[in-house]
Design brief:
alpha+beta, 23 helices, RNase_Y/CdgJ, Beta-Lactamase, six-stranded antiparallel β-sheet, 2 domains, 62% helix, 474 residues, Hypothetical protein af1432, HDOD, GAF-like_dom_sf, HDOD domain-containing protein, elongated
């Protein structure tokens, strides 16, 4: 843990570390003056302007009295608040300055959401210190934030290990970084002198302190919201908030919704507006979209499930199986096994004159069943579905090798499917044309992988053998 703290302080975030060290030095001096803090901040014009912007926001300055200098900001919102705002803004700038990892952006968005929840919860039970609660919650996961921002090759290794889903979350973390994120958070909180409140909130024995309880509750709401506002964990947290603040559960839920909406604006105030789309929305349509995107981002190839689906199709090719069972195994293997987010089988229908969606799987695919109809007559407007059926070869669209076929992705197709990479292959029963298989990762917009294309081709071949065997027996 100490080696990671030294690394984060000394090499990965040198500008931030210098600000942190100067701010630490001031807090150790009982007679530190307003001017000394102003002098530290004024060395960085960008940091100064951002601290003033935060200080002038309605969040910190509800009276809307214009603050033009750091000295005035310290007088208006307090020495400690300006110090902690400076630390927060420095951290956010340092981490988001380059192309940040998805894990960093998601964690920072969650931190902003949790911080606003905690501050508003504190408003029910505290007459002051709400801003301290906000900063303590914002920096509650500071060690993990710094790791994802500055962990280099080890962060890449951990991201890959977590994505595989082969082990519980804590195992790859401790194996790769040598300590837990909780210990790294606590170590950096102490090293950067973020305060006892942030430290205490990591324990479960200090919840009798209202400020600690507010930080803990806000942090847990931030995590639970990612699983949906109606998840069981959120229900328990609503009850806890109602008991803690002395309001009804209905009012507690409305307070949580209002804080989630407010968090988007607060993130913008701190210069992290790009994170707004990652904060759970309370708009019903956006809630559904965000949950779909999160589910898609969690979907990963499952080698064991994929192998089982292939074995099942292999057995069906040599035994009498119903079409429905063949298609179930096919779509499950592609979606849950190969990790493809949206899969569609479009069959030739209406006396072979049109493609119609027959089976679909994945988020946002149900409308295809009702609406996806594509003319199948090759003498009409050419498109990629009729082309691939004539070609009788699978294609990976959106890569350089297929750029010359982009004109075949017609406007009606884009309206149904969206833009981006996709796999497409003919489904045959011997020489008989059944239809076309389509798959993409459009929900999360993750790039398709070579291994997924290999699996897509293999599943298409196996399904074709099953259907050929079935047609021969018929």
């Amino acid at each position: 843990m100490q080696s990671w703290i030294d690394r984060l302080n000394q090499s990965e975030l040198p500008a931030l570390a210098a600000v942190v060290q100067d701010l630490q030095r001031l807090t150790r001096q009982q007679n530190a003056s307003v001017q000394q803090l102003a002098d530290v901040l004024l060395r960085d014009a960008s940091l100064t302007s951002k601290v003033l912007r935060v200080g002038n926001s309605s969040y910190y300055n509800p009276s809307q009295e214009t603050i033009k200098t750091i000295s005035r900001a310290i007088v208006m919102i307090g020495f400690e608040n300006v110090r902690l705002i400076s630390l927060s803004v420095s951290l956010i700038d340092g981490l988001l300055d380059h192309a940040p990892r998805r894990q960093l952006q998601e964690l920072l968005a969650r931190s902003f959401h949790a911080a606003v929840q905690a501050r508003n919860i504190a408003g029910y039970v505290l007459t002051k210190h709400e801003e301290e609660v906000f900063i303590a919650t914002l920096l509650h996961e500071v060690g993990e934030l710094a790791f994802w921002g500055c962990g280099g090759a080890q962060a890449d290794e951990l991201a890959a290990a977590l994505a595989s889903g082969e082990m519980a979350h804590d195992q790859p973390v401790e194996r790769i970084i040598g300590t837990s994120f909780r210990q790294l958070n606590l170590g950096l909180i102490k090293s950067w002198n973020i305060g006892e409140l942030a430290s205490f909130a990591h324990g479960s024995t200090n919840l009798r302190d209202p400020a600690v309880h507010a930080v803990s509750l806000g942090a847990r709401i931030g995590v639970a919201a990612l699983n949906g506002w109606g998840c069981p964990e959120m229900g328990e947290l609503v009850k806890e908030l109602a008991d803690f603040s002395g309001i009804s559960e209905e009012d507690a839920m409305q307070q949580i919704f209002a804080s989630a909406d407010e968090a988007v604006n607060v993130a913008t105030t701190f210069g992290a507006g790009r994170l707004g789309k990652l904060i759970p929305s309370t708009d019903p349509e956006l809630v559904q979209l965000q949950q779909a995107q999160r589910a898609a981002s969690l979907l990963q190839p499952n080698l064991l499930l994929m192998q089982q689906a292939m074995q099942d199709l292999g057995m069906m090719a040599s035994s009498r199986s119903e079409v429905a069972l063949i298609l179930d195994a096919l779509l499950k293997g592609l979606h849950e096994g190969a990790g493809l987010e949206r899969v569609m089988l479009a069959v030739l229908a209406d006396q072979q004159t049109a493609f119609r969606a027959k089976r679909v799987v994945g988020e946002q695919t149900q409308p295809w069943i009702d609406n996806f109809v594509l003319p199948g007559d090759p003498s009409g407007q050419a498109h990629i579905f009729s082309y691939v059926l004539r070609l009788r070869q699978p294609l990976w669209m959106g890569v350089p090798a297929s750029y010359n076929l982009e004109d075949l992705v017609t406007l009606p197709l884009r309206q149904h499917l969206g833009k981006g990479m996709f796999f497409i292959a003919p489904l045959m029963a011997g020489t008989r044309e059944i239809g076309v298989l389509y798959a993409d990762n459009r929900i999360s917009d993750r790039a398709l992988k070579h291994e997924q294309f290999i699996a897509f081709q293999r599943f298409t071949q196996l399904a074709g053998r099953c259907l050929e065997a079935l047609s021969k027996r018929s």
